[in-house]
Amino acid sequence: MNEAVEQKAVLHRTTIGFWLYLMTDCALFASLFATYVVLHGSTAGGPGSRQLFELPTALTETLVLLISSYACGMAVLAMRRKNVRQVLIALAVTAVLGVTFLAIELREFITFSLDGAGWQRSAFLSAFFTLVGTHGLHILTGLIWLTVTVVTLLRVGLTDKVARQLTLFSLFWHFLDLVWIFIFTVVYLMGVAA
Amino acid sequence: MFGRLTLDALPHSPITLGAAIGIAVGGIVVVALLTYFKRWKWLWREWLTSLDPKKIGVMYIIVAFLMLLRALSDAAMIRAQQAVFAADPNSPISPDMFQQVFSAHGTIMIFFVAMGVMFGAFNLIVPLQIGARDVAFPLLNSISFWLFVAGMVLINVSLGIGEFSPAGWLAYPPLSELAYSPGTGVDYWIWSLEISGVGSLLSGINFLITIFTMRRVGMALMKMPIFVWSVLTSSMLIAFTFPILTVSLTLLALDRTLGMHFFTADMGGNPMMYVNLIWAWGHPEVYILILPAFGAFSEIVPVFSRKRLFGYTSMVWALASIMLLSYTVWLHHFFTMGSGANVNAFFGITTMIIAIPTGVKVFNWMFTMFRGKVRFATPMLWFMGFVVTFTIGGVTGVLQAVPPIDFQIHNSLFLVAHFHNMIIGGVLFGAFAGFTYWFPKFAGFRLHEGLGKAAFWCWLIGFLLAFGPLYILGLMGAVRRMDHYDPSLGWQGLFIVAGVGVAVILLGVFFQVVQIGYSIWKRKELAVGPDPWDGRTLEWSTPKQIPEYNYATLDAVSTRDAFWAMKHSHHEKAEPKYEAISLPKNSGFGVYIAACAFVFGFAVIWHIWWLAAVSLVALIAASIASTQRQHTHRIIPADEVAETEAKLRGAHV
Question: What is the ipTM of this complex?
Answer without folding.
Answer: 0.96
